[in-house]
Design brief:
The complex is a heterodimer of chains A (278) and B (328). With 278 residues, chain A is mainly α. Chain A has 11 helices and 2 strands; from the N terminus they run H-H-H-H-H-H-H-H-H-H-E-E-H. Chain A has one domain. Helix content of chain A is 74%, strand content 3%. By secondary structure, chain B is an alpha/beta fold. In chain B, helix 4 runs antiparallel to helix 5 and helix 5 (139-151) runs parallel beside helix 6. Chain B starts with 5 loop residues before the first strand and ends in a 5-residue tail after the last helix. The chains are: A mainly alpha (278), B alpha/beta (328).
């Protein structure tokens, strides 16, 4: 088996570690989201929802716990969407020529960059979980050690498949474009609907039908569902909404993300085969 | 005679309506230093990019190291080393990491890779810079590191696209020494350059390329000999009369009109012929105001074949990122 993708992975991680500003900002940024947005919003939401009569017999989770899952998802989305950016810089600085002129099969470039993006998302997800629990998010509440470990593995599996999908997309865009500014523009355009038409920060139940339709085909919704299932449980209430997940829903969410990643890989593979770098 | 290591037949390449390579054919024998000499935009880099499989072959055929660039691009890639025209080093990787990365791209086994890195760092004298990030290297060191990288996998052919562009004269001379040393070890070298002196100094054979076509091929001395042994430049009081007299002389091979004077290629030793010419002119009452005698240089060869000077556009070339879209 050709392990060439590890070479691409190694270089991208080397750069990630070496650019201290990039390293530190990408580690601190999700914690800041939790610290500022999380605490500010949860104090507000908790005030509104305290008026609502709780459903009897259903455990209630506060807003910080509810949105911590959304912050993991959001961070994964952003990190993955920008994960392909380094390919664009490599292309513009001529570094991609060395790789394209080497015997390394081109799909290994996609795999390598996806693997490093996924690793970064893992690191960030773990930081958010740890930091979230430190500031009061009730993740893995009442779980045994083994349940906690399994839950973390479950979360990372969801994060992995989701991040691969968006990293493939990001790589496809990067190899097709000339300018980092253009890529930045496309990314901003994509993140808006994906992030806000999802259940990351608030329930989608009250969305108008059109927005609900978007949220149903939105991979982020399925990632958030998966994370909440593993981190909080299959039956809880938050912001006055009763959440119940069946194993079937979770399997479906996972398969949806696998399908999304597969389609995105097909697109990336097609773009890479067509790409000419001189 | 063994098989040529590079063989190109009727290669065409177009970018939209623009024909960058217009039907070139040539062969490179194993072990030689072969140069493409021509101005920027002549099609040199396009031709090289097709040979190294970065550009698709549009028309014609090409084999490198015995492999067809269309049918066996993988084998071609494994057989060659490349030093690109612009610096293609990650600024934030160290010299050693650059070579590690390259070796891994080519699936070099660990032990062999480590040995080769030591060997090459020594060859290009960068041992004490091995843990320096490339952004802190001088231009000449970067180029040397790129040559080392190109040699990592012991390629049969090393492609050098404008290897000394932007380097100071002393550094260029040292680069030439490295290139010759590499060639002596048995690596065939394919070089593109727009520097006359570089092609002249380094090459076993040169193809002069202009507007996508090869207009002359030969050893440096063969090319220069087509211009005769010596060239003289004359400014006289009567241009037409001078031309008439010169064209009647047996030892004058060819006459070229210049804006203010005449260049004559001679069949024999200029130091002997020049006095005869001046004497013949003065018999007709033509006064010579300026005279210059020189051996033909590659510049003269280029002017002879293309009818114009080779412009050194190297200094005007804007940074790569800006010109990328239109780069050839």
């Amino acid at each position: 088996m050709h392990l060439g993708f590890l070479t691409i992975f190694w270089r991208d991680m080397l750069r990630f570690y070496r650019f201290k500003t990039l390293l530190i900002s990408s580690l601190v940024q999700p914690a800041l989201w939790m610290a500022f947005f999380g605490i500010a919003m949860s104090s507000n939401f908790n005030r509104f929802t305290s008026e609502l009569p709780p459903l009897p017999g259903v455990p209630t989770v506060d807003y910080l716990t509810f949105m911590a899952a959304g912050v993991i998802a959001m961070t994964t989305l952003f990190t993955s969407l920008f994960g392909g950016m380094s390919l664009l810089f490599d292309k513009n600085w001529g570094l991609m020529r060395e790789i394209f002129a080497s015997p390394l099969p081109r799909n290994h470039i996609i795999f390598g960059i996806a693997l490093s993006g996924m690793t970064k998302s893992f690191i960030q997800a773990i930081i958010i979980m740890v930091f979230g629990i430190l500031i009061g998010a009730q993740f893995f509440f009442g779980y045994t050690v083994i349940e906690t470990v399994l839950a973390i593995v479950g979360i990372l599996l969801f994060v992995a498949v989701f991040s691969l999908g968006f990293l493939f997309l990001s790589a496809a865009i990067a190899i097709s474009l000339e300018s980092p500014e253009g890529m930045q523009g496309i990314m901003t355009l994509l993140t808006m609907p994906i992030f806000f038409a999802s259940n990351a920060l608030y329930p989608i139940d009250a969305f108008p039908p059109a927005l609900q339709a978007v949220s149903v085909i939105n991979p982020l919704t399925y990632l958030v569902t998966g994370i909440r299932y593993f981190a909080i449980g299959d039956d809880f209430q938050a912001i006055g909404i009763h959440y119940q997940f069946t194993p079937f829903q979770i399997v479906f969410a996972f398969l949806f993300l696998v399908g999304f990643a597969a389609v995105m890989f097909a697109i990336a593979w097609w773009r890479f085969r067509k790409a000419v770098v001189t | 005679m063994t098989e040529p290591i590079i063989s190109v037949k009727e290669l065409f390449h177009q970018y939209g309506d623009f024909t960058a390579v217009d039907g070139i054919s040539f062969e490179v024998s194993e072990g030689e230093i072969f140069s493409f000499l021509g101005p920027n935009g002549a099609g040199k880099s396009t031709a090289i990019n097709v040979l190294i499989t970065l550009l698709p072959l549009q028309q014609g055929s090409a084999t490198v190291a015995g492999f067809d660039v269309v049918k066996d691009p993988e084998q071609v890639r494994e057989s060659i080393g490349i030093v690109f025209q612009d610096v293609t080093l990650d600024r934030d990787m160290t010299c050693r990491e650059i070579l590690e990365f390259h070796g891994n791209l080519y699936k070099m086994p660990n032990a062999e890779r480590k040995d080769r890195i030591e060997e090459l760092l020594a060859l290009v004298q960068l041992e004490n810079k091995q843990d320096t990030r490339t952004k802190n290297l001088s231009g000449g060191m970067k180029r040397r590191l790129e040559i080392a990288r190109g040699l990592m996998t012991r390629p049969k052919v090393l492609f050098l696209d404008e290897p000394t562009i932007g380097l100071d004269p002393q550094t260029r001379m040292r680069m030439w020494e490295y290139i010759k040393a590499v060639n002596r070890e048995g690596t065939t070298i394919f070089l593109t350059t727009h520097y006359m002196d570089e092609a002249d100094h380094l090459s076993d054979r040169i193809s002069i390329i202009d507007k996508g076509q090869i207009i002359a091929t030969g050893t440096p001395s063969e090319l220069k000999n087509t211009l005769g042994e010596d060239l003289i430049y004359l400014e006289t009081s009567d241009g037409d009369g001078t031309r008439k007299i010169l064209s009647g002389m047996e030892m004058v091979k060819h006459i070229t009109q210049k804006p203010t004077g005449i260049v004559a290629m001679l069949n024999g030793d200029g130091t002997k012929i020049l006095p005869m010419i001046i004497e013949a002119l003065s018999r007709e009452g033509i006064r010579v105001s300026t005279v210059n005698l020189k051996k033909p240089s590659m510049d003269d060869v280029f002017v002879h074949y293309t009818g114009r000077e080779l412009r050194d556009e190297g200094a005007e070339k804007p940074s790569m990122a800006v010109t990328r879209a239109g780069r050839r």
